[in-house]
Amino acid sequence: MSGTISRYNFKAIAPIPDSSKLIDVVLSKTNRKTPTEIRANFKITRIRRFYMRKVKYTQTTCNEKLQSIVDSFPNLDDIHPFYADLMNVLYDRDHYKLALGHVNKAKAIVDRISNDYVKLMKYADSLYRCKMLKRAALGRMATLLKKLKPSLGYLEEVRKHLARLPSINTNTRTLLITGYPNVGKSSFLNNLTKADVDVQSYPFTTQSLFVGHTEYKYTDWQIIDTPGLLDRPISERNTIEMQAITALAHLNACILYFIDISEHCGYTISDQIKLFKNIRKLFYTVDPDTQETVVSKPIVLVLSKIDVTGWEEVSQENKDLITETAEESKAFVVKMSNTEKIGLDEVKQTACDILLDHRLTQKAKNPKKAESILNRVYVATPKRKDKVERPAHVPKTVLDQVPRPNDKKTVLEMQVENGGAGVWSFPYQEHFLLEDDDWKYDNAPTFMGGHNVADFYDPDIEEKLNELEKEEEYLTKLEAAEVPDMPSEMEQMMVEEYEKVKKKIGYIKHTKITQPADVTGLKLREKVGDKADEILERNKQNRKSLFEIMGVSKKRRKTGEEMEVDQGDDMAMQVDKNDMSLRMKMRDRKIKFAISRMEGADPKKLSTKVQNKSMERVRHKIEKKLKKVENVTFADRMQTTKMPKHLYSGKRGNGKTDRR
C-alpha cells in the first residue's frame, strides 16, 4: 500500500477500468509499442522473435495494470481496526478480499499463458503458425480479462464509496456523538463546527459518519456525528447503525451520549438509559493488573432540549435514574439546548478537559512513556569525593574596589533603569560626529522625489555642489548682461553665410513658381543613346518658339509678377494662385511621363543594335520571372499538400517519431 493510502487518503485510488476498456488499453499499447511489419521471406528466427515480443509485451502490460489495481486498495490486515471493521460493515470483508483475489489470480494465469505460447513459438516453422500462436495467446489473455468484469465493477463501486468517506484521523483528539435518532446530535455538530449536516424532524436523517473540526486551547479537535441507534441486538442492526457501533468500539474518543429529556424524539428517558447501558460494554475494558472491568473512555451524558423541558420539570424518578447511571459509568452530566444555544460551550469544555486528562493518564500508565518522561525530569546531583572545603575565590582587587559615585552611567544601565530593551533606547544621534552639534537632530530625508537619497550620496558632494553653484551664478550674470560677451569673428561669418543661403533658397523657390511647366520639362536629361546632341539642339529651338508663342517677357518671368499672354487679340489674362498650383501639377505630371518614356540608363552603353537586343533579352527574362510571382494572389486558393507523407508515415506514439 502506498504512502498516501497509509494515511487513509482513499481519494488517491485511481479509477478502475471495466474489462472491455482494460482489454482495449492493453492491446492498443501492444500495437503502439512493438513493431508492426514482418515478411514471410525473413529468417524464421527473426519471425519468432517478432511474435514472441508481442506476447511477452502483452503479458507485461496486463501484469502492470492488474498489479496497480491490487496495490491501490488498502490491505484490511494492515490498516487501523476502525477502518478495517468499517469496510467490513460497508463492503463485506469476504467479498472485498475475493474480488482482489480474482484480480491477483488473473495476473498469475496471464504469466502461465504467456510462458506456454512462447514455448510453442520456438517450434513454429512459418510466419503463419507464429501468427496463429500469437493470436491464440492474446485471445486467451483477453478472455481472461473479460471474465474479471464483475470483480472490477465491484472494486470500482468500492473505490467511489471510499472516496466519499470523511477523512477521520484515528489518533487525534476526538469527540464522538451518539444516542437515539432525533435527540439533537447533528444540530450540536453544526453549532460547534462548520460542518453543514442535514437536520430534519424524521429519524435516520444522518445515515453515515460526518466529521467537523473545532479548536480548544490552541489545538485542533475533531467531532464525529454518528447515525442514530436503536435498542436491539447487534445481529439485528443494519449497516447504518453498525457504522456508529464501529466508531464507538475502535476510536479513542470522549463519548457524548445525548438524552432528550423532553422525550420529543419518540423515546422515553428510561428507554434512552436502557440503550446507554446496552452499548456501555463498548467503553469497558479489563485491567491487566487487577483483572477488573474499568471504563476505558471518558463519557459525558448530555441532557438536550432543556428549552422545551427544563431539568426542574423532569420527574424525580427519571432524575434518579440519570444520576445513578452517571455514577455507575463515572460520567459527567451537562445540560444544553441547541435552539437557544445554552450550555454548548460548557459541553465542549467539559468533554475536552476530561479527554485531555484521560490521554495523559493513559500515557503515564504506558511503561515506555513513563520511562521517557522520567528521563526528562531527572536531575543529577554530584557526590562529595572528600571533606576538603573549597570556598569561592574572589580576587583581592575586587574586594578592595571602592564604588565611585562619580562614574558615568553606561547606556546599558540607563536602559535597565528605564524599563529595558524595547521600552527605552538611548538616542543614537548623540554619537554623530558633525561640524555643528545643532545638526544632530535634523530630519534627514530617506526618499526625495521618488528616489533613495543614499543612492546619490558622494563623499565629494559638497565640492561638486559649490562648483555647480559657481557655474550657475556665472550663467545667470551672462543672461542678465552683467558680463559683456562680444561675438567672435567665426560666429559673425556663420551669420553672414546663413543669410546668403536663406536668400538663395527664396530665389530658387521663386524661380520654380514663375517658370512655365513646359520649359522645366524640357530641361530634363534626355537619355536616348546617340541622338542626344540632336535633342539638345531641338530643345533650344522649341524653347525660343515657345516663349514667342506664349508672349512671356524675361522681366516678368524673373520677378514673378502677373504674366501676360498674347493670343492674337492682345487680351491679358490674370493668373491667380489656383492657376499657379494647377500649372505646377501639370508640370510634375509631364516630368513623370517624360521619365517613364526614357529608354536605357546611359547613351554610351546603348550605341549599337547588338547591345539593344541583348538588353531586350535580359529585360524579357526579368519580366518573365516577375510575371510568375505577381500572378499569385490571395484569391488563387492554392491547395498544398496537407499531410506530407514523410511527416505522417510510420508509428508516431507518445514521445516517439519513429518511421518504418
* Record field, number of beta strands: 10
CATH superfamily of the largest domain: P-loop containing nucleotide triphosphate hydrolases
Low-confidence stretches at least 5 residues in length (pLDDT < 50)?
1-6, 517-530, 552-577, 595-606
The overall pLDDT average reads 79
What is the share of helical residues? 40-55%
CATH class type of the largest domain: Alpha Beta
Strand order of the largest sheet: 2-3-1-4-7-8
The radius of gyration over CA amounts to 54 Å
CATH architecture of the largest domain: 3-Layer(aba) Sandwich
Oligomer: single chain
Based on secondary structure, the structural category is alpha/beta
Write the layout of secondary structure elements.
Blueprint: H1 3-6, H2 19-33, H3 44-72, H4 81-91, H5 93-121, H6 127-146, H7 149-164, E1 174-179, H8 185-192, E2 210-216, E3 219-225, H9 239-250, E4 254-260, H10 269-279, E5 284-286, E6 293-295, E7 299-304, H11 316-329, E8 332-335, H12 344-365, H13 367-377, H14 396-400, H15 411-417, E9 447-448, E10 451-452, H16 461-479, H17 489-514, H18 517-522, H19 532-550, H20 554-559, H21 577-597, H22 609-630, H23 645-648
Parallel strand pairs: 1-3, 1-4, 4-7, 7-8
Antiparallel strand pairs: 2-3, 5-6, 9-10
Helix pairs in contact: 2-3, 2-6, 3-5, 3-6, 4-5, 4-9, 5-6, 5-7, 10-11
